[in-house]
Amino acid sequence: MKVNKGFKFRLYPTKEQQDKLQHCFFVYNQAYNIGLNELQEQYETNKDSPPKERKYKKSSELDNAIKQCLRARDLPFSAVIAQQARMNVERALKDAFKVKNRGFPKFKNSKSAKQSFSWNNQGFSIKESDDECFKTFTLMKMPLLMRMHRRLPPNFKVKQISISCSHRKYFVSFSVEYEQDITPIKNTKNGVGLDLNILDTACSCEINNHDKLTDFKQYQTDMKELLGIEIDEELDTKRLIPTYSKLYSLKKYSKKFKRLQRKQSRRC
């Protein structure tokens, strides 16, 4: 069975590498904001027109518009970062329309303490380094020292990479897909589940082993000390078990209950 999992590792870039990563964060934010502005203008022009007359830009046209704006601002950029920014802004806009009255996504601010940019599953490598605890993560021909505190699963496939910075600490996140043998549960009747926080009653659901009901035994003693209600220890497997949760919650925050707690703490 295929399993998707995320792995996050700490990066230790040099001063020059930090400047390059900060430039990548800035370019990603600019590309994201340009794409969001284009989609907002497109939405404003099409919202009053009938559905057949609405015109939307293709993803390739939006990519070209973002790249032209970045070139006009004299910003050196990577085409992968610009493309990932376009994909993320389109995904954010689709998620915004799923919820009513949610509004448009917000523009990204390059002055915030948390920055990030996305990368695809191409153009990177992970190699061994002189230290066993560290590995060399190469991205955009830039070798970065990575703290490998856990191993990646065997035969994994990287789906996406994300570089982030939080309060001058740099991280890399891998979205990984790999095969894992998961044994399905054959007999579900062996498990016992009992919720004592519902309104009035709890169903025993044909419980065969009453020794597993440890929480219910403690609940019986609480009912006897607080409310003076005795619940039968012999449980029928097909009847409802009374919980008296309303009375229990009222007594739980009373003065008598607090005094009882203090007495029990003194005894210990």
Automatic annotation (TrEMBL):
Pfam families registered for this protein in UniProt: HTH_OrfB_IS605 (PF12323)
Stretches assigned to the Transposase putative helix-turn-helix domain: 1-47
InterPro entries, per the entry: Transposase_put_HTH
UniProt-recorded name of the protein: Transposase-like protein, PS3IS
